[in-house]
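Cross-check.
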Amino acid sequence: MAYKQWGEPDNPEVLICVHGVSRVSSDFDHLAAALSDRYRVICPDVVGRGHSSWLKNPQFYAVPQYVSDMVTLVARLDVPRVDWFGTSMGGLIGMGLAALPDSPVRRMIVNDVGPTLNFPAIARIAEYLGTEKRFASFDEGLDYIRTVSAPFGPHSDEEWAKLARDVLVQEESGQWKRHYDPAIAKSFQGLSEQMVLQGEAALWAAWDAIRCPVLLVRGSDSDLLTRETAQQMTQRGPKAELVELPGIGHAPTFMHEDQIAIARRFLLRHELH
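Predicted model, tokenized:
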């Protein structure tokens, strides 16, 4: 599992930032740079994405495997505790890790995801993941990323170009494709609403086991994390603080200063020691 690192390598204060299902570690370049004055920031490419290896058996592209991988990563970092920022899938991984007995997670930001997953949104993501696409040029790929990622909210042309560059890779043929193992879609294929409901029971059990402080961020127009689920998350388990970001769907990118300031305020509310 490859990862990017910011800040002093011997800083014992570590923040781990984990991306969404089809994204990569570079999503956090802005946030990591901004917080590297206080943290050693670690941003992994979850297996099957970016520069990390692909799994031989696609059945293991699932949260329990990802949590196991993060346990190994924390051990490699050789620190007793970490803070966590997880977007979408990265938030689910964080919930799994924070729910473990004697978890190393000290405080956590969960970005636009929760134990109850809106089935139509899951179906939308599954369709996106399962569609193999090639692009004749980077600009064609950029247009596609801008379209499917429109819920991220307003971004400049330069920011959209970065968001596209991070997840597109050029093949020897000269064509461009998305930078992940297409087999990650297999875990979504054949998912029924009943299966999603069964998974939710396990996720709520994990949520209720979390003891660390949690900030929950929701895009006000999110189709994955409903307002009702977000409110439930403030009332049970770690009783998360909730911040809603207007005019944004799934999911806020935390590339902008106002969003980065939200993360900084929560993570550094109590002086690091």
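The chain has one domain: 3-267. Residues 193-209 form the longest helix (17 residues). Passed to J.P. for a second look.
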